[in-house]
């Protein structure tokens, strides 16, 4: 598990280069399609937070690794009939963009535990048809509606950029999410999380204020 240690070192170096406070950028290891053994290996190297996209696949790994205090993050597309299992098995959801899903997650979480589910709203910065998430213009209203849902704790914003951008374009995209978070906080929100940056664009994300990088292939190797 040399790759993950080297990646963490690189994150510390980038924090320094972009004048970010040390340890202000955390790593979410995206473990979709990775085996339980690979996750355990990363865990033993000191990695505690893992992100999964597909509920059925995740539930198998969560059950297999339940002896370990791993923090599981759901980062995939949400379906209404999966909200209960998501609320019961994950600590975080990054991919929330629908009020009905939010209410269902909150209700299921409350029924299970007093510890709220941490959520980020997924914003579609590049406005690609294929990308999920809400548009920036819809963000304010949805954030206001979700803020007070019992069982949820609104922590911040999440985005995925297009894959073909250059460094300056990546920075511009991430900057929009940063500014959107600032604007919400200026209205009295208390958002502390910017979930942005993947294997190919995490440097730009760190430059623009990411607090949580979602990285898969640079941790585990390319998915087959
Ligand atoms: C797969 C995935 C990632 C990680 O992508 P890599 O390119 O492997 O780093 C991050 N976020 C989401 C939502 C993903 O689906």
What keyword list fits this structure?
224 residues; alpha/beta; 9 helices; 17% strand; binds pyridoxal-5'-phosphate
Tell me what you see in this structure:
- The protein is of the alpha/beta class.
- It has helices at residues 2-17, 36-44, 55-64, 83-89, 99-112, 136-147, 167-186, 202-207, 217-220, and strands spanning 26-30, 49-52, 71-74, 92-96, 117-122, 152-158, 193-195, 212-215.
- It is built from 9 helices and 8 strands.
- The chain has an 8-stranded parallel beta sheet.
- Strand 1, helix 2 and strand 2 (49-52) form a beta-alpha-beta unit.
- Helix 4 (83-89) crosses helix 5.
- The radius of gyration is 17 Å and the shape is globular.
- The protein binds pyridoxal-5'-phosphate (PLP).
What's the arrangement of strands in the largest beta sheet? 7-6-5-4-3-2-1-8
**Portion in strands:** 15-25%
The N- to C-terminal Cα distance equals 18 Å
Could you list the spans in which at least 5 consecutive residues all have pLDDT below 50? Answer: none
Q: Percent helix among the residues?
A: 40-55%
Q: Rough shape?
A: globular
Mean pLDDT: 96
Query: Rg from C-alpha positions?
Result: 17 Å
Give the bound compounds: pyridoxal-5'-phosphate
- Mind describing the biggest β-sheet? 8 strands, parallel
From N to C, what is the helix and strand string?
Answer: HEHEHEHEHEHEHEHEH
According to DSSP, the number of beta strands is 8
- Structural class call reads alpha/beta
Assembly category: single chain
Number of distinct helices: 9
